C-alpha cells in the first residue's frame, strides 16, 4: 500500500508533460479560435454596412419614383401629344360653332 500512496502522491504533484502533438494541437486550436473571432467581427461589420446601404436605398425610394415618372412623361411619343392637342382643339371649335349658331 505504501507504494500505491507514493505513486499517487507523485502523480498528483507532478503533472504529466504534454507530448509534442498535444502542444501543437493546443496551439493550432488557439489560432483557429482567434481566426474565427476575427471572422465573426468582420461578418458583423459587413452586416452593419449592408443594413446601412439598404436603409439609404429605402430613403431614395421617393426620389426614384419621381425620376421614373419624369422618364415616363419624357418617353411618350411627341406625335401622341400633338394628336391629342389637335383633337382637343377640334372639340372646342365645334362647341364654339354651336354657340355661334344659337346666337
Automatic annotation (TrEMBL):
GO cellular component: DASH complex; mitotic spindle; mitotic spindle pole body; spindle microtubule
Pfam families given in the database record: DASH_Dad1 (PF08649)
GO biological process: cell division
Compositional bias of kind Basic and acidic residues: 89-103
Family as reported in the entry's similarity comment: Belongs to the DASH complex DAD1 family.
Record organism: Didymella heteroderae
Protein name in the entry: DASH complex subunit DAD1
Swiss-Prot/TrEMBL keywords: Cell cycle, Cell division, Centromere, Chromosome, Cytoplasm, Cytoskeleton, Kinetochore, Microtubule, Mitosis, Nucleus
UniProt subcellular location: Chromosome, Centromere, Kinetochore; Cytoplasm, Cytoskeleton, Spindle; Nucleus
GO molecular function: microtubule plus-end binding
PANTHER family named among the record's database cross-references: DASH COMPLEX SUBUNIT DAD1
Residue ranges of the region described as Disordered: 75-103
Amino acid at each position: 500500500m505504501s507504494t500505491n500512496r507514493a505513486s499517487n502522491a507523485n502523480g498528483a504533484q507532478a503533472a504529466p508533460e504534454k507530448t509534442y502533438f498535444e502542444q501543437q494541437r493546443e496551439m493550432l486550436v488557439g489560432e483557429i479560435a482567434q481566426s474565427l473571432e476575427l471572422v465573426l467581427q468582420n461578418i458583423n461589420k459587413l452586416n452593419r454596412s449592408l443594413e446601412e446601404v439598404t436603409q439609404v436605398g429605402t430613403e431614395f425610394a421617393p426620389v426614384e419614383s419621381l425620376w421614373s415618372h419624369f422618364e415616363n412623361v419624357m418617353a411618350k411619343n411627341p406625335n401622341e401629344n400633338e394628336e391629342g392637342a389637335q383633337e382637343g382643339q377640334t372639340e372646342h371649335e365645334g362647341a364654339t360653332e354651336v354657340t355661334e349658331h344659337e346666337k
